[in-house]
């Protein structure tokens, strides 16, 4: 099977799973449409991965979640929907323009009371969370600049408790992490290795299908 045929098969499999288990609804469709209209990069999680993230919140019983990288709020909607009525998601976003779009999308979904978006450099925001004693979080999702992942993991550990789930998107990057030749892939390889070798974590990378193979890193904190 040639490359084009493989990509087409992957897209068809992803569409089959999404149509069956994660059909779009009005709020999610509007969030994608609004993000595209605003010129945001089309790098949000897939519908199937969004459903997986939502299920992980539900399965873990998380009440306090932290997201590093908001973009248009598509994944934040999935997280917030799974939180209890008194649950809270703090989402960190570098770009004010992205945050504005996300806030509109989250408000349209009726979830503004559960989500707080903080704008600025994630490293500064994470340091502030630690300094202000705002941890621990039950679940932390990393989906921001790839070169920052190793450092974001270090901060996440400081904001965790035993049982916290730490998730990292784009852990496979089409296989480039196996033989990285660019800074982003090298950083993701380092991130994966830190997860695998840290005795305080029990971790695995779950391969995911979109138009290429990617993956979601899932780690359970044993000891912060």
UniProtKB/TrEMBL annotation:
Highest rank taxon of the organism: Bacteria
Keywords: Methyltransferase, S-adenosyl-L-methionine, Transferase
GO molecular function, one term: S-adenosylmethionine-dependent methyltransferase activity
Gene Ontology annotations of biological process type: methylation
Gene3D superfamilies found in the cross-reference section: Vaccinia Virus protein VP39
InterPro entries assigned to the protein according to its UniProt record, in alphabetical order: Cation-dep_OMT (IPR050362), SAM-dependent_MTases_sf (IPR029063), SAM_O-MeTrfase (IPR002935)
Record flagged with keyword Transferase: yes
PROSITE patterns: SAM_OMT_I
PANTHER family, sorted: CAFFEOYL-COA O-METHYLTRANSFERASE 3-RELATED, O-METHYLTRANSFERASE-RELATED
Name of this chain's protein: O-methyltransferase
Taxonomic source organism: Rubrobacter tropicus
């Amino acid at each position: 099977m040639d490359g084009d045929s493989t990509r087409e098969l992957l897209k068809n499999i992803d569409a089959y799973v999404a149509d069956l288990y994660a059909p779009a609804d009005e709020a999610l469709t509007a969030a994608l449409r609004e993000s595209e209209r605003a010129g945001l990069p089309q790098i949000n999680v897939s519908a199937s991965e969004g459903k997986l993230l939502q299920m992980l919140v539900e399965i873990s019983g998380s009440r306090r979640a932290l997201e590093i990288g908001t973009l248009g709020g598509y994944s934040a909607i999935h997280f917030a929907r799974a939180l209890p009525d008194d649950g809270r998601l703090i989402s960190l976003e570098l770009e004010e323009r992205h945050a504005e779009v996300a806030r509109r999308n989250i408000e349209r979904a009726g979830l503004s009371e559960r989500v707080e978006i903080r704008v600025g450099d994630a490293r500064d925001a994470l340091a502030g969370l630690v300094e202000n004693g705002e941890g621990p979080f039950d679940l932390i999702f990393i989906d921001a600049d790839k070169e920052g992942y190793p450092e974001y993991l270090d901060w996440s550990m400081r904001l965790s408790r035993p049982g916290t789930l730490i998730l990292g998107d784009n852990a496979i990057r089409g296989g480039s992490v196996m033989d990285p030749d660019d800074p982003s892939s090298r950083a993701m390889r380092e991130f994966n290795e830190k997860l695998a070798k840290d005795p305080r974590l029990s971790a695995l990378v779950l391969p995911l299908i979109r138009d290429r193979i990617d993956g979601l890193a899932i780690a359970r904190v044993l000891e912060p």
